[in-house]
Amino acid sequence: MDFIGSHEELRAVYKTPDASDVAVRKELGRLDGHCRSFIARSPFVLIGSSDLEGNADVTPKGDRPGFAEVLDDRTIAIPDRPGNNRLDTLENVVLNPAVGLLFVIPGMNETLRVSGDARVTVDAELRERMAVEGKPAISVLVVSVKTAYMHCAKAFMRSKLWKPEAWPDRASLPTLGQIFRDQLAVDGTAEQTDRRLDQAYKETLW
Predict the structure, then answer these.
(1) Cα–Cα distance between 105 and 111 in angstroms, integer?
(2) Three-class secondary structure of residue 190 per DSSP
(3) What is the CATH number of domain 22-159?
(4) Is the model's pLDDT at 22 over the cut of 90?
(5) How many CA atoms does the CB half-sphere of 25 hold within 13 Å?
(6) Of 86, 71, 85, the residue nearest 130 (C-alpha)
(7) Would you say 49 and 93 are in contact if contact means Cβ atoms under 8 Å apart?
(8) Is residue 85 classed exposed, middle or buried when 0-12, 13-18 and 19+ CB atoms within 10 A define those classes?
(9) How many CA atoms lie within 13 A of 17 on its CB side?
(10) What average pLDDT does the chain have?
(11) Angstrom distance (rounded) from CA 204 to CA 192
(12) How far out from the chain centre does Cα 21 lie?
């Protein structure tokens, strides 16, 4: 299998967009009213980051719509809630602040893409402001926006992501307990593992 190894080889396959194309002009250097509105309605964001060796990670963050707060035209705050304490994203941004964000709104095929630099804060006032169920955020990821733009609908249309009739039968897929049983040889049955996970979800969602 041959692989493309240069910009010239890549652009021999894909044409270079003209500077006047919407695909180029749509990139903003700040968050305008539409970006702010989208973030305010989004309950879900994917965060891409990497460490100094280039090991990449994408982490999902989900909460009530508007959980990510626009502090100003170039700053977004994303709260961190209880999790597994791997801290993949937070560990990465402490070393390498570059991040990419993809905000999603259920049922909407277009997404909002943001890139910038992130820092982690445990500022008490900000953590308290982003509290849910009386529980402050553990920490907050503060992203300084470099670029923001709307991404077109093609990927969601092709995948039929929001079309229930295209979804697989959940019963045909293994549970996380079954997966952990096979991959990690955890103690107990898959059903016992699933019950422990369900209980943990109920007790530590926020």
Answers:
(1) 7
(2) helix
(3) 2.30.110.10
(4) no
(5) 5
(6) 71
(7) yes
(8) exposed
(9) 8
(10) 96
(11) 18
(12) 27
Please say whether the beta carbons of 80 and 137 come within 8 A.
yes
Angle at the Cα of 23 (from 17 to 24), degrees rounded to 5? 70
Q: What is the pTM of this model?
A: 0.94
Q: Which residues contact 121 (CB under 8 A, 6 or more apart)?
A: 139, 140, 142
Asked if 128 contacts 140 with a C-beta cutoff of 8 angstroms, the reply is no
pLDDT at 166 > cutoff 80: yes
- Conformational region of residue 92, where left means phi above 0, alpha means psi within -120 to 50, and beta covers everything else: alpha
* C-alpha pair distances (Å), 144 with each of 26, 99, 130, 180, 187: 19, 10, 18, 37, 44
CA distance 99 to 56: 10
DSSP character for 171? G
- Confidence category of residue 10, pLDDT binned at 50, 70, 90: very high
- CA neighbor of 32 nearest in space, from 67, 69, 73, 75: 73
Give the phi and the psi of residue 143 in degrees, each rounded to 5.
-105, 125
Structure tokens at 177: 């307990």
The domain locations on the chain are 22-159, 168-204
For strands 98-104 and 111-121, give the pairing: antiparallel
